[in-house]
Every structure is written in C-alpha cells, then in structure tokens.
Specification:
Layout: H1 8-38, H2 45-55, H3 59-62, H4 64-76, H5 78-108, H6 114-143, H7 150-178, H8 181-209, H9 214-221, H10 226-229, H11 231-249, H12 260-280, E1 283-285, E2 289-290, H13 291-294, H14 298-325
Antiparallel strand pairs: 1-2
Helix pairs in contact: 1-4, 1-6, 1-7, 1-12, 4-5, 5-6, 6-7, 7-8, 7-12, 8-11, 11-12
Length: about 325
C-alpha cells in the first residue's frame, strides 16, 4: 500500500497540516465574501447588486474548504471532533443557519418581485453577520481549550467581533479589487474603518491570549525563539500600516495597484494564522488534546491519504481555474 512507511507521527503532522491549510483557505476565501455580506448597505440597491456580482462566481466554491476542514477533523482526529462539537454545538448550529440563510437569500433576491427583494437583501446581510460572529465565537472558545467560564466567554465575544472585523476588512479590499466608481470609493472608506478596528482587535486578542495558557506565554516571552516569534506580530502591524498608506493613496492612482490592499490583507491573515499555529502546536484542542492523543488509527489514515493526495490538489486546481477565468472587474450578475 502507498504511504505504508509513514510513521504515526508523520501521519499526524500531515493531517494537521492539511487541516490547517483547509481552515486558512476557508478563512481567506469565504472570509472575503462573508465580509461583503456584512458590509451590505441598507438602502443603495445598485451597490448591493454590484457587491453580489463581485462574489457571484466564487462564493459557493469557497465553502468547499469548510466542508473539507470538518471532514478532515472527523476522519483524522475523531476524539477532537467529538469534544469540539459537544462544546460548540450551539454556535455551530447558528453558523449553519447563517450559511443556509445566505445561500437562500443569494438566489431569492434575484427571483422575487422587486418589492420583496429588500427583505432578502436584509436576510443576506444578517445571515453573513450571524455566520461571522458564530465563527469568531467558536474560535475564541477553541483557543481557551473549550472552557465555559466567564473569562472564556468574554474572550470568545471579543474574538467574535474581531473575526467579523477581519472579514469585513478583507471583503472591503476585495471590493476595491473587483469594482469601480462610487462603490469602489465606498469600499475604500469601509476598508479604512475596518482596518482600525482590526488592528485594535489583534492587539487585544494577542495580549489576552498570553493569559490563557502558560505554555503559550512561556513560548513567546521566555523561550530562546521568543525574539524570532516576535517578528510575526511586528511584520503584521507593519503590513497594516502599509495598507493604511496604500488605502489613502490609491484613490488618486488612476486604477493602478488596486490589487495591493487585498494582497496585504491576505498576508495579514496568513501571519495571524501562523501565530496561532506556532502558539498551539502540537495541540488539536489547546491545553487538552495533542495531535497524537486525538489521532485516528494509523492504517486507516494511510489508506485515506491515497484519496486525499488526489482530492486536495484537484480542489486547489479548480479554485485557481475559477479565479483565473473570472479575473478582472466583476460584471453584472445574471441568474439566467
């Protein structure tokens, strides 16, 4: 059998790497289209139509990475999957309700009578908001090690607003890249406001994160590699400052460099994710379950890896193909 020489430890690292990749790509790709939904203006119908058109070819495929992440967690780390869902079944339910509401609203807004279109636009916005808040809350509770005390709840609520701000920020940057005219100018305004909130949220979450686990605090503040790790937040804030400068100068750049804010947002997401990964490796559930504690049977994982090395590259290739085909400015969305 292929991969039969892989040790259990190597299998654990491969699957946690695949899980991390799926979560990161979901946060980036579905993050921007959730952010576009959160930014939906209450009244301007043309803005809303153009915003939906900017994510129309991509949004459904973006959620593939969420399905893959949950599947990998179930297959490779079943004990962690059980504990996470037991602790987070309520916010997970709200997240799924938000995703369903978004999907239904996305199609219905274009097919109902114009007098009812505004109701579905409102559903799309609040479905997006419910999803982002739920995901942020789930992240916060996961970081605490699935605790349920008051401190953990407060941290989770902060994470909920922080993730929502991050999604709104990358969503605004996406609109700068894909739209023109008045909507693009409005997207510059949204991006600047969200950038300030995001920066404050990163500082708050980073500082509070050091109080949750002794191992994380020791790694960042006492270990020999602490100084090296400090380059991650420093670089992250340097990119946020650069993005602020870019957002101020781009409106007068005659369309040049419109990709920069989105590219910088991607780098910020990757750096924040890297900081989390370094902080909590080798835990699947921080402070409770390590990779080896939660890992499924090695023989099963070797067998499943055969399919994984085929499926994951196919999804990556499909994603790249879609973004290449629909590159450039978005056009009017058509459902017919």
């Amino acid at each position: 059998m292929p991969f039969e020489s892989l040790s259990t430890e190597m299998l654990g690292n491969i699957y946690i790497g695949l899980l991390a990749l799926a979560v990161l790509l979901y946060a980036i790709l579905d993050g921007y289209d959730l952010g576009v939904g959160v930014l939906f203006p209450p009244r301007n119908e043309q803005f809303k139509d153009d915003m939906v058109a900017s994510i129309g070819p991509y949004w459904d495929a973006n959620e593939t990475w969420l399905v893959l992440a949950v599947g990998l967690l179930l297959i490779a780390f079943p004990q962690a999957h059980s504990e996470v869902l037991q602790a987070l079944y309520l916010p997970a339910t709200f997240m799924l309700l938000g995703l369903i509401l978004r999907g239904v609203s996305f199609d219905f807004r274009a097919k109902v009578a114009q007098t009812k279109k505004k109701k579905w636009d409102t559903c799309f916005k609040y479905g997006s908001l419910l999803t982002t808040l739920s995901q942020g809350y789930m992240l916060g509770i996961w970081v605490t090690g699935l605790r349920s005390d008051i401190y953990a709840q407060g941290f989770a609520l902060l994470a909920a607003f922080g993730v929502t701000a991050a999604y709104a920020f990358i969503g605004a940057c996406w609109l700068i890249l894909k739209t023109e005219g008045d909507l693009q100018q409005k997207a510059f305004y949204w991006a600047k406001r969200c950038l300030m909130i995001l920066g404050s949220g990163i500082i708050a979450v980073s500082l509070l994160n050091l109080t949750l686990h002794d191992s994380v605090r020791s790694l960042w503040l006492e270990s020999p590699i602490g100084l090296v790790l400090m380059t991650i937040p420093i670089l992250c804030f340097a990119l946020l400052l650069l993005c602020g400068v870019v957002l101020n100068r781009l409106p007068e750049a005659d369309g040049k460099g419109e990709w920069l804010p989105f590219a910088l947002a991607l780098l910020v997401f990757v750096l924040c994710f890297a900081a989390f990964g370094v902080s909590y490796y080798p835990y699947v559930v921080p402070g409770k379950l390590t990779i080896m504690d939660a890992l499924a049977d090695a023989n099963s994982l070797r067998f499943l890896l055969v399919g994984t090395v085929i499926v994951v590259p196919c999804i990556l290739a499909y994603t790249a193909m879609v973004y290449r085909i629909f590159s450039g400015k978005s056009e009017k969305l058509s459902y017919y």
